[in-house]
Amino acid sequence: MSAFDSISVVKIVSGDSRPRSELIVSRAARALPSNHHRRSSRPYQSSAAILTPVLVAGLLYLVNPHAAMAQAGAASDLPPVVIADPGKKPKREVAKRVVSKRAVASRGVGRTNQPVQEAPVAGAGAPTPAEAALDRKMQGFDQSRDHMLPKLGASSYTIDRAAIEAAPQGDNTPVDKLVLQLPGVNYDSAASNPNFHVRGEYANVQTRIDGFVLPEGVSGLGPVIDTNFIGSLSLLTGTLPAQYGGRTAGILDITSRSFSTSGGSVSIYGGSQGTITPSFDYGGGVGGTQYFFSGRGNWNNLGIENPTSSINAIHDHTDQGKFFAYVSTAINDTQRVSVISGASYSAFQIPNNPNQPVFPDSNGILPNGLGLTSLSNLANTANSSNLNEREIDQYYYNIVALQSHGELIDSQISVFSRYANVHFIPDVTNDLIFNGVASDVTRASQMYGTQFDASYDVNSAHTLRFGFMVTAEKTDVSNISTVFNVDPDSGNPTGAPFAVTDTNSLVGWNIGTYVQDEWKLTNQLTLNYGIRFDQLYQFVDANQFSPRAAFVYKPFDGTTLHIGYARYFTPPMQAQATQSNLALFANTTNQPDQTNNDPVLPERSHYFDAGIDQTVIPGLTIGFDAYYKIATDLIDDGQFGQAVVLTQFNWAHAYSEGAEAKVKYQNGNFSAYANMAFNITRATDPVSNQYLLDSDEFAFLLNNYHYTDDMQMWTGSAGAAYRWNQMLFSVNMKYGSGLPTGFANSSFDEPYTTFNLGVAREIQALPGAKPLTVRFDVVNLFDKTYELRDGSGIGVFAPQFGARRGYYVGLSQKL
Description:
By secondary structure, the chain is mainly β.
C-alpha cells in the first residue's frame, strides 16, 4: 500500500467550495514537472504535433468558447487524484476539468512582473468591497493578457509610475524625453520624429498600450501620447518574440494607469520659454467598469530645437493638446471589453535661422519674377529672421477589444482606426527668396486594422501562442511647390514663379501572422521559438518567413541569461515612402541633381542578441547586453529640403553592432540608476529614392560605407532620487558623444553632458484633505550649450541646438 493511500482527497470542480488542502493537491497534480508526464492521461506531445490542433482549437474558441473547451477537454483533462480510505469503498467519479487559477497580486503586477503602477493616495481611503472585487477581477484579466504576450528572450528595461514621478519634472516630462533615460536611446532633434533613436536606428520603434499596437503616424514634430497616463513603460530590444512584427528596433510597451478607488489630480506647470502646461487625470470604477481619463495642454516658445545657440529661439511657438481615455468593462468572469481612445493636436512655428544668404542665380541676379532684381536691393528688404513657416500635426486613434479568459486558452481580439495628418505651410515669398522653392506639403493617412493574440497551455512544458494583425492604410500625399524655371543652357533661374502640384494616393496592406512555443526544457532553462509570416502590399509587394528563437536560463535565484536570434521584416512607412514625380520638376529650381528614383523596399535583417541580468544584493541589479545586426535594404530617412517632413530610402548593405550596460539600486527612500551604451551602424549603396542625395555624395556612397545619420557612438544616462519626509529630491543626466555630420557623415558633432534637478514637496493644506504637491525643476542645470546637428550631413537641412537652462514650477492637487 502506498503512503498516500491513507489520505482522502476529493476532486474539485469550478465553483465548488471545498477545503483549501484539496485545492492544493489538485493544483499540484496540474503542476507536475515534465518527467512526471507518465502520470497524466494525456501523453507527452512534441511541438510539431500540437501546432495543427491548437490552431483549430483557437478558432473554435473565438466562435464558441464553451464548445472549444469541450473539444479540448477530451485530450487535455487530467484525471482526479483519488485515494481510497481503507475503511470505505471508493466512489467512482467522472473526470472533470480543474480550473487553473492565476495568482492575484497588486495592480500592474502580472506574469511579466511589471511593477506596481499606483502608490496609495493620501486621503483616498480604502476601497469598498465592491471596488476591491472589481480590481481583483481586472487584475486577473491583466495577468491573462500578459500571459498571451511574453517578453522571453528580449532585453527589457522598465520605468514604473513611482520612477516617473520621482524624476525632475515628473510626469510633465514629455515621453520623447523620458525614454532618453533608457539604455541605448540617443537624443536627436524633433525634426527626426521621434527625437530619439534606439540602438542607432531611424524611427523603427513600435508603441503598444496595454498590449495593443498603437498605429504609427506620418512624421510629425512631437509625441502623440502624454506621460501622465503611463503606469509603467518598458523598452524591449534585441531578439523579440514572434508576436512583434513591423517596427523592431525597440518596443515601447506601455501599461496605462489604473485606480482601485476613484481619484486623480489636476495640475499646472510652467516657467521658462513661456511654458504653460495644465493637465488632469482621473480614474476609478463603477459597477463592472474601470475607467481612466487624462489630458494636457502645452504652450511654449520652444516648440522644436533652436537653430542657434541663443537662449530664446526666433519664431518657435507651439500650441499642443493631448487626450487619453481608457474604459474596461467585465462582461462576466471570463470576458471583458476595453476601449482606448486618444487625440493629439499640435501647431508649430518653424524656428528661423537669422542672417542666411539669399538664393541667387550664377550671375548674382535673382529671378525678376519677385519684383526685386539686385542682390544689394534684396539684402536691404529680406531677412531670414522674418520667415513664417508653420506646421500642423494631428493624430486620432480608437481601439476596441474583446478579451476572453478560459481554462487553457486566453485570447484577445481588437479592431482599431487611426487618422493622422501633417501639413507643412511655407512662407511662399520668403522661401523663394532664400531657398528658390516653397513647398506646401500635406501627408494624410487613414488606417484600419485588427489584431488577434492567443495562448494555449498545452501542458506543463509547452505554452503555444499564435495570432495575426492586418492593417489597411490609405495615404494621400501632396506637394504643391512654387518654383522658378531654369534656363536649360545657362542653368540660371528665370521668369516668374509658378506652382507645380505633385500628388500620390495609395491603399496599402500589411498582413502578419505568427505561431510560437514556450518550451520549458528544465525548471531553469526555457526555449521560446516560433515563426512569423509578413506580407506587404504597398509601393512594392514583398513577403518573408521570419524564424525567431531565444534561450532564457536562470541557473540561480537572481540570475537570468538570454541568447537569441531573430529574422526581421520591416516595411517602409507608407506616407514617408511615397515617390515624387520628378518629371514635373524638370528644368525648375526644384529639380534634383540626379534622377534615380527606385521605390522604397522593406528592410530584411538577421539579429543576434545575448545578455545577462544579475541581482547582486537585494535592491541592486546590474545587466549587460550585446547585439549584432546584418541588414539588407536598411531603411533610413531624412529631411531633404526646407519642408520639415521626412522621406525614406534604402541602403543595400548595412550592419549594426553594440553593447549596453545598466545598473539599478533601490534602498528604502533612495533610488538610483545608470546606463551606458555603445553603437556603430554603417551602410552603403543607396538603392531607392536616390535623387534625395547630392550627386557627389551619391557617387561616393555607392561603394563606401558611412556612419548612418541616426547613430551615436556613445550614449549614457543616470539619475537618483531621495524622499525625506514630505520632500523629494531628484537629479538626472544624459550624455551623447555627438551625431554624424559633414560630407557623407564622415565626422561627428561635439559630445555633451547635461543635468536636470528637481525638488518637490507634499503639503497637507487642511486636515484630512488630499495633498497638494509643489515642485521646482531646473533643466540643463549648468546651461550647457550643445549642438545636436550642425546643418550638414545626410538628410539634415538646418542646425539644431539643445535647450538652454530653464526654470519651472508646478502645482498638483490630488482629487
